[in-house]
Design a protein that fits this description.
about 400 residues, alpha/beta, five-stranded parallel β-sheet, about 45% helix, disordered N terminus, disordered C terminus, binds iron/sulfur cluster, signal, oxidoreductase, 3 iron, 4 sulfur cluster binding
């Protein structure tokens, strides 16, 4: 169980009342959390799922009685997209929960103090029990020089903040696996949180960014149960990530019927057909995107006509690029039996196949571009291989023009 001995006086219920959060809004929030906790058990039937997961009332009762915890939310080598995902989720999550249920005493984006006052806030936080949330990777190259806060490397900041942390959440692909910064050749030596913190469990809330409600639900789970959630082999909470996008996708019937979008402007695209042939990684990606969706369930990538890029999976940038290339290794697509062959057991092989396939394709494309200066316009966009890229006329005295001219004359 997570110790909360030094957490602040007053329960979350007291704090919500003080903050003017109505019972109705609170119950709506708890209902959303209950739905997300149930989302990871889609295959046991609705009744069984309900008996395995708490109701909104149970969550409300437990949350109301918990002491308001302190939270340190670090933003290391990242783009702030994960924090935006929470704050712009459009629901009650940010204002009423993240900012009212917890005491976010340290966060570079939201806190009022700066400079020495900000450093002191973190030092004070580190001296007490707290929940630690981390966005961003940890660059370890050049002795951590690529990301420093208050003169300390990101690694040092993380290690100090983790020492008295009662629970650690790595939020976003960067914090979980290093994401784009760790993509080959990983120039900053970027690592995920659990490659640095070895003596405590780290809950990996993956995605680029993760769905705001899933981040909040993970925090809520820790508060509600006083323990970390059950996780999968990648350290992700099972309640959210124990399901494949492909299995809940509304375009799945078109996959089974062999109806595929070939280019983003074709008849299939207009009819909402399956995006597998334009690069959808849904068959090997685990996330509740089709169920929870984004911005108050108003949309999600596949719903908007874009293939899944597999951002909740390990090293997705290396594994799944070029993003618009077809996921290889799925035999006999278009028939129901083949879908079941693409199970969890095949995912590693699929990912490895994708990496090899993707790597070879990329090398081939780069060769084409370097040899004749032409850009391959992906077929998925209705383009033609070998088409010239659009040109931009530079002013005659621009630096690029001068250096090209100089090197041209030197070569000649
Ligand atoms: S996971 Fe994606 S959204 Fe989050 S910080 Fe990294 S790049 Fe930004
Ligand atoms: S391949 Fe992608 S678009 Fe097609 S059914 Fe699967 S998840 Fe949906």
């Amino acid at each position: 169980m997570i110790s909360g001995a030094n957490w602040q006086e007053g329960t979350l219920g007291d704090n919500l009342a003080r903050a003017g959060v109505s019972r109705r809004s609170f119950m709506k929030f708890c209902g959303t959390m209950a739905a997300i906790f149930a989302a990871g058990t889609p295959n046991v039937g609705e009744a069984a799922a309900q008996s395995l997961t708490p109701s909104a009332e149970e969550i409300a009762d437990k949350l109301s009685a918990v002491k308001k915890p302190k939270v340190a939310w670090l933003q290391l080598q990242e783009c702030t997209g994960c924090m935006e995902s929470v704050l712009r989720s459009g629901g009650t999550t940010a204002e009423d929960v993240v900012l009212n249920l917890v005491s976010m005493d340290y966060n570079e984006l939201l806190m009022a103090p700066s400079g020495h006052a900000a450093e002191k806030a973190l030092d004070d936080m580190n001296a007490e029990d707290h929940i630690l949330v981390v966005n961003g990777s940890i660059p370890t190259g050049e002795h951590g020089a690529y990301c420093t806060i208050g003169g300390k490397s990101a690694e040092q900041v993380l290690l100090e903040a983790a020492e008295k942390a009662t629970a650690i959440l790595a939020v976003g692909a960067c914090a979980v696996w290093g994401s784009v910064q760790a993509a080959k050749p990983n120039p900053t030596g970027a690592k995920g949180v659990d490659e640095i913190i070895k003596d405590k469990p780290v809950i990996n809330v993956s995605g680029c960014p993760p769905i705001g409600e899933v981040i909040t639900a993970t925090l809520t789970y820790v508060l509600t149960y006083g323990k970390t959630p059950e996780v999968d082999a990648e350290g992700r909470p099972k309640f959210a990530y124990d399901q494949r996008i492909h299995d809940s996708c509304p375009r799945r019937a078109h996959y089974d019927a062999g109806q595929f979008v070939k280019t983003f402007d074709d008849e299939g695209a207009r009819n909402g057909w399956c995006l597998y042939e334009v690069g959808c990684k849904g068959p090997s990606t685990f996330s509740p995107c089709p169920i929870v969706q984004w911005n108050l369930k108003s949309g999600w990538p596949i719903g908007a006509g874009h293939p899944c890029i597999g951002c909740t999976e390990k090293d997705f940038f290396d594994q799944f690029t070029p993003f618009y290339d077809k996921l290889p290794g799925i035999p006999g697509i278009g028939v129901e039996s083949s879908v079941n062959k693409v199970g969890v057991g095949l995912l590693a092989a699929t990912a490895a196949g994708t990496a090899v396939h993707g790597g070879l394709t990329l090398v081939k494309e780069l060769k084409i571009r370097r040899s004749n200066g032409e850009e391959k316009v992906l077929a998925a966009f209705g383009g033609v291989e070998g088409r010239k890229p659009p040109t931009v006329d530079l002013p005659s005295n621009s630096p690029g023009t001068q250096s090209e001219t100089a090197s041209d004359s030197k070569d000649n």
